[in-house]
Amino acid sequence: MINLEQISGLPMEVDDQYRIKLHPPALQTGPLFFRKFSEMQPVLMDQTTKPPQPETYSVFRGIQLADDVYKIKDNRLSYDVTIIPSLMLGVEFNKTLGHYHEKITGTQYAHPEMYEVLSGKALFFLQKMDPELKNLITILAIEAETGHKVIYPPNYAHIIVNIGNQPLVTANWISTDYKPMYEPIRDRQGMAYYVVPDKHGYKFEKNPKYSEHPVVRMVTVEDTISKQFGFTLQEPMYVTAMRDSMLLEFLNNPKKYAVQLSTIAS
Which positions make up the signal peptide (predicted)? Predict the structure, then answer.
């Protein structure tokens, strides 16, 4: 059992079956889904890998306090929790499937996203390609532990990798208008690099389905949460956002915050 109340600001915990257990006044208004191993197989380094278990991670969408339901809905937001068990997918650490976001109509910006590690140790792996999704431009990797917050800039594909030996639990704020694109990742058998163990903890192995492999740039957590976004490492992002929901305006209007968001990857 992992108690998440203090770190998340919500009365909830993870049970031994990797399910979220909510306590009043917390509730879930969105769907729950489990990522099947068969869905992960197309993005694995070794596609002959045998499944360690039928489901490799789970996502609980629309978690919130009862008093915040209308505020969150009116701001077109969702607070979701993802649980990624500590296991191996063949030679790789367990990870999420990975996707891009479609660009917002009439703009060159896709919806960004904000994450917080509630328990465990994560590696957030992001990559940006040209507008035609043919050539890689930039690759970022961010190590994060409990309490750390990470903002994904617009137009980056992303995965979360559990590089620890305990279940990884993350929360995210995202616009309910976002539309994921999984095909560009599936079509190339995953991201540009795979994350595998080595004597130093982990290393990056090139995915040969990509013609170029920019150097992976390690970014610190502090770099991704600038004070200009109004969030700190000391307070749960749910609590901060519900005190002032305008702090999350950048999730639905990234064009307005283009300069601030660009500093994350600069």
Answer: none
pLDDT tens track for 176-221: 999 999 999 999 999 999 999 999 999 999 999 999 999 999 998 7
Domains of the chain are: 2-265 (2.60.120.10)
Q: Give CA–CA dist 215/138, Å, rounded.
A: 8
Q: Can you point out the beta strands (E) in 73-208?
A: 77-84, 88-89, 92-93, 100-101, 113-119, 121-129, 136-145, 149-152, 156-162, 168-175, 180-181, 193-196, 203-206
Q: Can you read off the two tokens belonging to residue 177? A: 């208008």
Nearest-angstrom CA–CA distance, 50 and 222:
38
Could you count the other beta carbons within 10 Å of the beta carbon of residue 139?
Answer: 20
Q: What does residue 214 show for φ and ψ, rounded to 5 degrees?
A: -55, 150
Measured distance CA(61)–CA(79) in Å, rounded: 6
